[in-house]
Structure formats: C-alpha cells, structure tokens
Amino acid sequence: MRLIQISDCHLRADPDARSRLGFPWRQLEAVMAHASRLRPDILLVTGDVSQDESPASYRMAAELFDGLGCPWFWFAGNHDHPEFMQELRPFHHELDLGDWRLLCLDSRVTGQAGGELGEEQLSELAQSLALSVELDPRPILLAMHHHPLSIGSDWMDALGLADRDALWETLRPYPQVRAVLCGHIHQAFTQFMPCGQGSVAVYGVPSTSDQFAPLSHDFAVDEAARPGLRVVDLDGEHLETWVERVTL
C-alpha cells in the first residue's frame, strides 16, 4: 500500500495568483504530476487546500486530484472553508489501508491559526483505540493538520496543537498507534515522541506552495527549498516513508 501525502496548497480562485515566492497552482500541478509517476494507491491531503477559501479553488483542486487515478481524501486546515470542501468530497474519519488503519483528526479551530482537538474528540479517539485492542489490532496512523509537538520554531510552535499534552496522554496506553502525519509546518520533519513503553513517529511534509524556514524564531520562508510530497509505504506492519521534492 502506497500513500502519498500532500499539504498546504494555498490555492486562490485565480490560477495565475502568486504566493510569496511562486505560483501555487502551477506548483501543485507539478507536484501532482510527480505523484502520478510514483503510482500511489491513495492520496491524502492534510489541509490548507485554499488560501482565499473560494469554491473555485476547491473545484480546481478536486479536479486535479481526480486525475491522479486513485482514491483521494482531504480534511480542512486553518485556512480552509470546510463546508465548501465537503460539498465536493465528504470528510472521512477513518480509512482502511489494508494492513493499517488511518484515523483523521480535526484540529481546525474556526477563526484561529492554531489548532486544538478538544475534549470530545480526544474522548472519542480513546474509545476507538480501546475498542481496537481486541476488535481490530492493526497498527494505526493518525493524521491531522496541526503539528502535535514542538518543531523548534518559536512562531510556528505558537500556532501548533494547543492540547498536544492531552493528545499524548490519550495515546499513551495504545502502542498500536505508530505514527502521525501532519501538515501546517510547510517543511519536511521527522521526530520520535516517547509515548508509553515506546515512541510514535511524527512526520511533517513540505508544502506544495512556499516553504517555511526550519528552526526560525520569527516567520521566515525558505527561498531555497522546493515544493514536495511525502511517500508512505505500508507492508505488513512495516512503515517506510520519505520526502520527495519537485523541480519546477
């Protein structure tokens, strides 16, 4: 099973609109062409599809994703309009990845750049994980828009998951959770978070648009970094993942 993750497309209704460093629509087209050559089984889009929250930006993205020829799924980031997205493609809270399960969590908080899961969603997650111990012991991937731990960037960490400690406490009794995929940070990232008797891998992905400078105290873009995607290969209980950059 090959999953490709992309994130943070930041499209506008005008396909010729510029970002700080480039043209988001053209960059997304290049990333999707690269993704097609990797022959994915599934595409996961982890939020901030749009910058202007326009229906047209979501229609453009959905048509491009349809052309990949495999099932695709998305959820909202802090820049998104969830209702417009769901009119085109409903959100899914759980995906069957064969030997693995993928649980999608909603970290968006209306009107805020930072994220939060909230007590109700964390309680539902705990219940789902507890049931899976006996009923479905497959390893689990989590996916959310906001990053659930510090990435060493002061301004970005202030806009991460506000209830990250509660999330890790929720996950602590459940070693079947192996990894977390997130967007939001506009950069490649890997860190292993101690959790219970083991650890959980947290993977960030480059934006398909502009990249943020790693380890920056204040907001900064990385002018040298290219757009990219993350490949996740699942074989039995084994997970292998890497980032690929796209030349424009």
From TrEMBL:
UniProt-listed InterPro entries: Calcineurin-like_PHP, CNP_phosphodiesterase-III, Metallo-depent_PP-like
Annotated Calcineurin-like phosphoesterase domain residues: 1-187
Keyword Hydrolase: yes
Keywords: Hydrolase, Iron, Metal-binding
Official protein name in the record: Metallophosphoesterase
Pfam families associated with the record: Metallophos
UniProt similarity note: Belongs to the cyclic nucleotide phosphodiesterase class-III family.
SUPFAM superfamilies hit by this protein: Metallo-dependent phosphatases
PANTHER family: CYCLIC NUCLEOTIDE PHOSPHODIESTERASE CBUA0032-RELATED, PHOSPHOHYDROLASE
